[in-house]
Specification:
8-stranded antiparallel β-barrel
Length: 171
């Protein structure tokens, strides 16, 4: 992944101190169970699912995220989507040319909720997500991020750049 610069501001989380995070979501796959278009031109997508490669300098916010949900919008795909997410901590190995996910040895697992506004899969989108750690090194932690979808020349596709924070209330 030469040429890709990831900025991450991280320090040990102490006393419930927020830790700033940044990550990049790279689409790996997309599916939907059903799509209907009303006579008025409104699209309803049910059973939306997607998998993203999450890249970050912070190992707590790097891994694989699987999202599920629904989307409602216009024929231009401008609209609103929302749903849930499972985020597995880990790293990606791209040495073979095809990214392979390697789960964290500590089994970090996040559960969350997301919301999307804008063009589905396009450049003009805003994303928000919140969640909490349910297993491994992230258990008990919480996070909140906002993202913007932008074109990335490194991957030759649209990616979402997320910034936000995580908090370990146990410390």
């Amino acid at each position: 992944m030469a040429g890709l610069v990831l900025l991450s501001w991280a320090w040990p989380v102490a006393g419930g101190e927020k830790q700033n995070i940044q990550s990049i979501a790279v689409p790996m796959g997309f599916a939907m169970e059903e799509m209907r278009v009303t006579p008025g031109g409104i699209i309803h997508v049910e059973g939306l699912s997607a998998v993203y490669m999450m890249l970050s300098d912070n190992p707590l916010t790097a891994g694989r995220i699987t999202v599920t949900g629904n989307f409602n919008g216009e024929l231009s795909l401008n609209g609103v989507g929302s749903g849930s997410a499972i985020f597995e901590g880990g790293a990606w190995d791209s040495t073979s040319g095809t990214p392979v996910f390697n789960a964290s040895a500590d089994g970090g697992l996040w559960e969350g909720m997301w919301e999307h506004k804008g063009i589905l899969g396009g450049a003009i989108t805003q994303h928000k997500a919140v969640g909490h750690g349910v297993a491994g090194e992230v258990q008990g932690m919480v996070y909140a991020v906002e993202g913007q979808t932008v074109w990335n020349d490194e991957f030759d596709m649209y990616v979402t750049v997320y910034t936000g924070w995580l908090l370990d209330p146990k410390n």
